Request: fold
Amino acid sequence: MDQGLTIALPKGRILGEAAALLGRAGLGTAALRGDDRRLSIPLPGGHVALLVKPVDVPTYVEYGVAQLGVAGGDTLREQARDLYEPVDLGIGRCRLVVAEPRDRPSRLQRGMTVRVATKYPRLARAHYLEHGIDPEVIELGGSVELAAVIGLADHIVDLVESGETMRLNGLREVETVLDVTSRLIVNPAAFKLRAAQVTAAIEAIRAVVGSVSEDLREVS
Amino acid sequence: MASVGQAARGGRELLPQAAARRRALVDALLGELSRWGYGQVETPLLESFDVVARGLGEADRARCVRFIEAGTGELVTLRADPTPQIAHMIARHSGGELGRDEVLRFCYAADVVRQPASGHEPAEQHQVGVELVGDADPWADVELVALAHAALRCVGLPQVHLDLSHGQLVAGVLAPLQLLPSVAVTVQQALARKDRAAVELALRGAGQSPATARAVASLCDRIGPPAMIERAAAELGAVLPAGPLAALREVVEGVAALGLDAAQLVVDLGETRGLEYYSGVRLRAWAPGVHRPLVRGGRYDHLYARYGHPRPATGFAIDLDASFAALLAAGASLASPPAPAADLVVIPRRADAALRRRAAELAARSRAAGRRAWIQLADDAGAAATLLQRWRLREGEGARATMGVWLDGDDTTVLEASESADERT
Reply:
């Protein structure tokens, strides 16, 4: 008999949706609550959930202390880790965008560099390099909008969901860098060592995600 | 006072016990490889970059630690992978010391240095590996799988999972579809993530039939015990390229015929990661509790042509740190082998030249008898006893039998370890 799976889940915004989705796939996460103070939570069915900071989910899964995890495409592309990402869960939908102050658009000029504030230095740099610009990237841990508002940076590269925060702070979207959704991630060693158990879990999650997109199609 | 300075760079430092453990592991592995007919070779630590680069893929080339050699102005690199070096070595000696058509079995123990791909990987890795050169028969691939299994078993890791895939299988599936390069890249990336929906979407978007798209996408899930190959062959039919499929089948059957437990074999038909290098069957070994493979290897028949001597070749490397991690995860005791029972520490009173000479004679006699013996000066009998006690405590159980001898004047006293010294520590 296989032991249960350990699943790393991101605390915060996505947790409710992710827990509901994996719960419907039979992983026992349905009753997980964001305000649970425990960090490692035994689940019905013998599985275990780890509630961790979203950017740390790939680390837990890469090192194999969790076999499965839920992580945003932004984090995964930024960290470029050795993981399988078998299912796009379609939740936590948002975009990584370039934005600038509405009243202070920065004209890109020859010989000028652009200062970019972001939590995603790797993705930001890659994006500008693709456009032939070598940016000066300032890495911040949060409140990235502020950097553009007070002139620390010309541009920011940050996540937007509705765009409301940006509008409120007088920022304007310039372009989209990446469309982001949350993905199921799987530790490669676990995939090989516990193939039957892991593929069964993936299949169940795919079935749930598939039925959700069917529902959406009917609604729209 | 000066600070202790920076942490060790590149790799971990090993104190005597850890170093002894690594050496024991290397010796055990090389011993087993030697019993299978593999002769040990050595390659230079410093190598012309051209030699290494010819044998590596783009990503691995970029990870070489390169510099310009003073004096010659040539681009050189630290040893990043012994395999291209051995290919170069064999090419240079072919027709000389090595026969042109001879099947060669070489093994090595080597430290390799690569720029880490991510921040948490060490730059230095310690490997023991083999090269089987000149044999294109699937039986050679079988030998390597069996050898990897035997080598790990002999160091206490019998329960590894051997993960088989084929370097040309996915390429063989995609080639007949004649995809645009950009689509092919998208499909490859989605396959690497095992994202079935994305593979299907990309192929449908490129005008492939739903049946084809679904069949190719199903490779994401074609991972499991060897029996999965037959199921895949039945369900996918001509989608799977015949050559790679037959090669995988032969290796699986050959390995099973050798009595290897089928439950330890995993076949992955959809694998594309890290396969650029391999022209045939690719082998990895995994163990519970270790996130990276213990063994990486496979067949690279195109490699030797790059050195002007086309020959089929296959090989693997065992990652020593990953193997240690697997031993720890399996609960193995990593105690170093017990020291020989009658170690001797000779402790003469300090500042007496005659005593030092006598101590040297005593130690020399003991060494000649095959024992470990060394000399340590002390100021009085009490200090000598403490010294012996500290040594025993530091070295653990194996050192309990270490004998201490105190030399003072004409007296030779065998030291008793004092209880109080035990408690002090």
